[in-house]
Amino acid sequence: MKYQISLLVILFGFGFASAQNYLDLARLNVSNTSMETLEGDQAVHETDITNFNFEFLYPTPINDKTVLITGITVENTGLSLTAGAASEGLTMTRLNLGAKISHNSKWTGTYLLLPKIASNFEDLGGADFQFGAIALLEYRHKNRFRTKYGLYSSSEEFGAIITPLLGVYYRTPNSKFYIDAAFPIRMEANYSLTKKLSLGADLRTSIKSYNLGGGIVETYVQEESIRFGLYAGYSFMKDQLIVRAKAGLDTTDYGLYQSGDTVGAQVLTVALGGDDRTRLNNEFDSSIFVGFDIIYRLDL
Fold first, then answer.
1. Which residues pair with 169 in a beta bridge?
2. Positive or negative, the Cα torsion across 288, 290, 295, 299?
3. Domain containing 44: what range?
4. CA distance 166 to 146
5. What does the pLDDT look like over 46-60, one tens digit per residue?
């Protein structure tokens, strides 16, 4: 056991996927908002939206340079996509499979395969299965400062998404403040007021799709999500359990399209071949959200 913990400290001291001095073994995020859809400047539809996201990570040291990574991510969003429609449950279940490799004293790489099912889980078929991958290299300038460079790609109902990644990790000498970012996917800035109490801000973005089965016409949802939040956190169990109350701005849009209506390759939010699809619902307006996080964290 001491051998395994030592390896985790050595390898994850360079940072796991985002070069931090900690490892989140489990994370639960729950948020709620109410959004309107707009036709021109007029609101035509309002729906309550609840988002639930759970992530679990299990690292297994192999030797002094390699840690196998296995884990699962489950996300569910409940909302009504069009006026008068029943609430739809959009669910994504993803396996996280790969390895973290210390190439030398400066460079560390994280490589993950990300197979997933993303749909409303009605009449499951081939369109519900998607496949992604991520490669992230981290360069250690100093113990408190690292930079990150990578690429994420995934097959989606609208085509292939390609996302370049650029990030940074920095912690102050007194350890009261840190910033941990892998833009454009995520960012977190945290300041410790006391040993137990902290204030911070985080950003979470994603672009993904959900196949909708069980309808007369086969359709899918393209979700383009940006959630920026401010939080107050409190730690328990010798700082291993962290609970955060959060509020912020949710600008997520849920576009509804007919299956087979695609854009090909898309880099971030830009379709390389243009986007001439016919959208079947109205655009969602941004709104304030409230929520909470529960994190089980291992300091390294």
1. 146, 180
2. positive
3. 2-299
4. 11
5. 999 999 999 999 999
